[in-house]
Every structure is written in C-alpha cells, then in structure tokens.
Amino acid sequence: MTLQMWKRKNCREFSKNGFTLVELLVVLAILGLLAAIATPQVIKHLGHAKVQTTRMEIKNIGVALDLFRIDVGRYPKQEEGLEALLKQPTSLDAWKGPYLDKQVNLNDPWGTPYVYRIPGQHGEYDLMSYGADKTEGGTGEDADITNW
C-alpha cells in the first residue's frame, strides 16, 4: 500500500466518522434557541424559590425567638437584635443557645439582614425581609415578606 492510497483511505474514514461545519452550526443554533426559551423560565422559578426560602427562614427564626423567650423569659431586646439567638448576651444566665445554626440565617436570600422590631407594630415582635428590591413595599419578588 502506497502512502497516497493510505491517505485516501484514512481521509474517507475520517469524513465518514466526523461532522461537517454546517451540522455543528445547526446543532449550536438549536442549543442557543433552547437556552433562550428556557432561561427566563428558570430565572422566574429561581425568584419564586428565594421568596419561599425567605418565608421558611422567617418561620425558623420565629421558632428560635420563641425558644429564647421560653429560656430567658423575654424576647431579645432591640439593641440585642437577632444576634442574641447566636451569641449569649451579657448578664443572661438562663440563655441556652445558640438557637440558630449559622450566621447566614440572619440574612435573607438577597443578602440583606432580616428586620427585627420589638415591640412590634403587628404583634409582640415584627420580623421581615424587604424582598429583592431591598426597600419597603413592592410586588412579586420585590414584595415584603413578614411574620404577620
């Protein structure tokens, strides 16, 4: 077998097993189209998941506040804040915490600390997140998420 015959044989095998540039471009165009259609749907669900996560975290912090109250006899003061659920405030011998696992639990999914007010305007205490826009009010993902 000569070198020229060997090259022809290998070129034919390569062209049978490979893809043409046009085929690759068609596949890339289809993938791009699918990504353009799917991305907005995924982002919409991601925003909804953050709202649901915030609701769950507010409930968990509420349970931790109730446990604090059972142990200490009161909710954390405004100046102690939610930090009292993680670190023992000075002169509280009855504290049996920490009542939350991590420091991250004190921030909403958008990275903003939860708002804690005592006395609350809607109950003994108010606990809330301002949502994605990080300002009071809003609708959808920007709406305030509260414990009342």
Write up what this structure looks like.
With 148 residues, the protein is mainly alpha-helical. The chain has a domain at 51-146: Glycoprotein, Type 4 Pilin, CATH 3.30.700.10. Helix content is 45%, strand content 6%. The protein has a three-stranded antiparallel β-sheet with strand order 1-2-3, with helices on one face. Strand 1 and strand 2 form a beta hairpin. The chain is elongated and about 95 Å long. The model has no long low-confidence stretch (mean pLDDT 85).
Please sum up the structure shown.
45% of the residues lie in helices and 6% in strands.
Key traits:
single chain, 148 residues, mainly alpha, Glycoprotein, Type 4 Pilin, 3-stranded antiparallel β-sheet, 3 strands, 6% strand, elongated
Topology:
Blueprint: H1 3-17, H2 21-72, E1 115-117, E2 126-129, E3 145-146
Antiparallel strand pairs: 1-2, 2-3
Order of SSEs: HHEEE
Q: CATH topology of the domain at 51-146, anyone?
A: Glycoprotein, Type 4 Pilin
Number of helices: 2
The secondary structure category is mainly alpha
Mean pLDDT: 85
- Estimate the strand proportion: 5-15%
Total strands: the figure is 3
State the end-to-end CA separation: 86 Å
Please bin the fraction of helical residues.
40-55%
Tell me the radius of gyration.
29 Å
- CATH class descriptor of the domain at 51-146: Alpha Beta
Q: What does the largest sheet look like? A: 3 strands, antiparallel
Net shape: elongated
Name the CATH architecture of the domain at 51-146. Answer: 2-Layer Sandwich
CATH superfamily of the domain at 51-146: Glycoprotein, Type 4 Pilin
Q: Low-confidence runs (pLDDT<50, min 5 residues)?
A: none
